[in-house]
User: What shape does this take?
Amino acid sequence: MSIEHKEAVSGLIKKVPQVEVTAVVQFSEEERAIINSWNLGEVVIVERQMDAQRAAKHKGDQYIAQAPHEHLRIGHLTGGPDRYLFDTPHDAKVYQERLVEGLRTLKAYLANCASLAEPQVFEI
Assistant: This one.
């Protein structure tokens, strides 16, 4: 996995500085097979908020409707690099921490999806 931060500029008239975070994850063939066989592409890894530039373009209900589509899902990472914009370097660093934790959780999640649980016999 690699994560890169770089400066970006948004806006045609008023140039607004932002930080673009690019995440690249190399899934093993086994992990890809698990993702495909259990249709896990829509599983959310990290919930994320729209940056101020994009949020300003949406009004009320539009924002509410669009916001869930901003979350990072497994399918975003299996398709190649994921790029996301943040308003400040601080926001980008907080996201990176949450992303690393989310990917650690994803690794365990995929391992648990690799096989069914062993049968158990117990008394109550």
